[in-house]
Amino acid sequence: MDKKNGRFSGWWKAEKDKIAGIPGTSKKIGYIWEYYKLWIIGIVFGIWYITFAVRQYTTGLKDYWCFMIFANTYADAGDHSELWEDYVGYAGFDLTEKAVHFDAASYFDYLKGVTGNSYFEGFVAYADSGTLDAIVMGRDSLTALGQTGRLLDLNSPECASIREKYGDRFLYAVPLDEEYSTEEIPVCIDISDSRLVREYGIYSEPCALGIGALSDNVESVELFLDFLFE
C-alpha cells in the first residue's frame, strides 16, 4: 500500500510540474482536457447523479395526501392499521400517486415539559417544514400545544368548511405570540366521542385533533374528521 501511495504521489507531482511548465492557460486547459476528460466527465456525472438522487428523495418525503401524528397512544394506529386502511378506503386516495402516513410512535406532553424530548423535536420539524397535516393527542395537552403557533388558527379561511361542520367542537387557547393575538383563538377540535375512541379505541382519555399551521392538505384533514363522525 505504501509503495502504491508513493508511486501515486510521485506521478501526481510529476504531472503538476509538467502542467506548470506548459506556457499559457489555454494550453494548460487543453492538456488537462485531452488527458483527463474521461475523469472529468465521470466526476461531473457523479455529482449530478448524487444531487438528483438527494432531490428526489427529499421531495418524495413530502409527497403525502395526509401526514398525521397520533401522539401518546400504544394502540395500533400506524400505517396499514385498521384505522389507516379504513380512512384510505373512505377517502379514496390513490397511493400510487401520493402516500398517507400515520405516525403512532410519538410520546410527549406539552403540559409536562418537552425540553430535550426527541419526539417533540420531531413534531416541530414536521410542523415547521409543512409536512405535518394533523396531530391527535390528549385534549388538554393539545390545547396547550396550540399556544405555540404550530397549530392552524381554525378561524383561517381554509378552515371555513370545518368551522361550519365542527365549530361547536373547537377548543381555544391564547397564543404565546402576543403580536398574533392577545385573545383566545380556536386551535383544535374535540374528537373525544368520535369513532377514534368508540370504535378503534385509540385513546381512553378525552382527545382532540389539531391541524398543522403550514399544512397544504386541510381538505384531507376534513375528510378524516368526516370519517370519524360519519
**Separate helix tally:** 8
Q: In angstroms, what is the radius of gyration?
A: 27 Å
Q: Helix proportion of residues, in percent?
A: 40-55%
**Amino- and carboxy-terminal Cα gap:** 71 Å
CATH arch. level architecture of the largest domain: 3-Layer(aba) Sandwich
- The shape is elongated
Structure classification: alpha/beta
CATH class of the largest domain: Alpha Beta
Provide an overview of this structure:
This protein is α/β, with parallel strands linked by helices and 230 residues long. It folds into 2 domains: 2-59, no CATH class; 64-229, D-Maltodextrin-Binding Protein, domain 2 (3-Layer(aba) Sandwich), CATH 3.40.190. 47% of the residues lie in helices and 16% in strands. The protein has a 6-stranded mixed beta sheet with strand order 2-1-3-6-5-4. Helix 3 links the parallel strand 1 (64-71) and strand 2 (99-106). The chain is elongated. The termini are far apart.
How would you summarize the topology of this molecule?
Elements: H1 2-20, H2 25-61, E1 64-71, H3 82-91, E2 99-106, H4 118-129, E3 134-138, H5 139-145, H6 160-166, E4 170-173, E5 185-190, H7 195-198, E6 207-211, H8 218-229
Parallel strand pairs: 1-2, 1-3
Antiparallel strand pairs: 3-6, 4-5, 5-6
